[in-house]
């Protein structure tokens, strides 16, 4: 019964993550200001949750503060780039470009941590790269500047990969505490940048904009992360690896069904290559470790 509940929690979290682009499109703020609001709202709610639980930051988290502060800064930049990608191309193409991050992690680990690059990982990396070439190069895409949007999505993937790599030495058991510190670090990095580039300008938001902003902070960030880390404690690695890729699937579906955004068949096939081979690699690795 607990596994079924955890499975549902992870599915809900991934589905919520997949709707992020739809809400971001409705918020009339700069990408940096939106990223700052997201980090602050989620950090405040997580801090309140820890106070209610009388939960203290663990020794493991305090020992890993340098990595967490760096990864939090990378997370903030990652959000800015992803939100910018949504502005210039379709949600599906931005998301598919963004999901090249696992392939970057796959190829970086042997270089940074002296891990052995297996034949399976090499095949996955090459096929994911071929998929990325198709996503970026096949068809003109849609949006005001589709190539720029996809390159921004790929840049966001680089910083997301940096977050994953920096977190490799941080205990998984302290997932919410780790994320809390990262949110604070992201806010600390983003706040001066936003102040120097025009400020928040929240007064210009419409009611719909405010509703979407609150949803991004409270639902897509605080709520989805709580569901995600709660589910991780009860699910096997293989299930987590497979179900995590509901995020891009939902994003691509909603991009077409709700917004009517079109994706060229070859670009869609490239996206399938990126997601399928990343999923295969993670599922295989999780199976070996379980």
Characteristics of this structure?
290 residues, mainly alpha, 14 helices, globular
Radius of gyration: 18 Å
Number of helices, counting only DSSP H or I runs of 4 residues or more = 14
Major sheet summary line: none
Mean pLDDT: 86
Assign a percent range to the helix content: over 70%
Total number of beta strands: 0
Order of helices and strands: HHHHHHHHHHHHHH
Beta-strand percentage range: under 5%
Structural class category? mainly alpha
Given as residue ranges, the uncertain stretches (5+ residues, pLDDT < 50) are none
Distance between the termini: 20 Å
Overall 3D form? globular
Care to describe what's here?
- The chain is an all-alpha fold and 290 residues long.
- Helix content is 78%, strand content 0%.
- It contains 14 helices and no strands.
- The chain has helices spanning 2-18, 20-24, 31-53, 59-63, 65-88, 91-98, 101-113, 119-137, 146-166, 175-196, 207-232, 237-243, 246-257, 265-289.
How are the elements arranged and paired?
Elements: H1 2-18, H2 20-24, H3 31-53, H4 59-63, H5 65-88, H6 91-98, H7 101-113, H8 119-137, H9 146-166, H10 175-196, H11 207-232, H12 237-243, H13 246-257, H14 265-289
């Amino acid at each position: 019964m607990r596994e079924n509940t955890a499975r549902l929690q992870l599915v809900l979290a991934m589905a919520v993550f997949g709707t992020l682009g739809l809400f971001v499109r409705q918020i009339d703020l700069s990408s940096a200001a939106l990223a700052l609001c997201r980090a602050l709202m989620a950090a405040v709610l997580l801090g309140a949750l820890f106070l209610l639980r009388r939960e203290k930051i663990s020794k493991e988290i305090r020992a890993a503060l340098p990595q967490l502060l760096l990864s939090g800064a990378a997370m903030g930049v990652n959000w800015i780039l992803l939100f910018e990608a949504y502005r210039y191309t379709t949600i599906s193409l931005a998301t598919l470009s963004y999901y090249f991050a696992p392939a970057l992690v796959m190829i970086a680990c042997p270089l940074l941590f002296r891990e052995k690059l297996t034949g399976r990982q090499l095949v996955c990396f090459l096929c994911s790269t071929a998929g990325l070439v198709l996503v970026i190069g096949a068809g003109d895409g849609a949006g005001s500047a589709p190539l720029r949007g996809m390159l921004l999505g790929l840049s966001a993937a680089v910083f997301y990969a940096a977050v994953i790599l920096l977190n490799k030495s941080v205990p998984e058991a302290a997932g919410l505490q780790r994320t809390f510190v990262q949110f604070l670090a992201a806010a600390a990095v983003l706040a001066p940048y936003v102040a120097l580039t025009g400020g928040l300008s929240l007064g210009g938001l419409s009611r719909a904009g405010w509703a979407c902003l609150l949803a991004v902070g409270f639902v897509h960030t605080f709520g989805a992360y709580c569901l995600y880390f709660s589910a991780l404690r009860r699910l096997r690695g293989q299930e987590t690896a497979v179900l995590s890729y509901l995020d891009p699937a939902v994003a691509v579906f909603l991009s077409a069904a709700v917004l009517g955004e079109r994706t060229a068949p070859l670009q869609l096939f490239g996206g399938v290559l990126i997601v399928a081979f990343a999923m295969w690699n993670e599922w295989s690795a999780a199976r070996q470790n379980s």
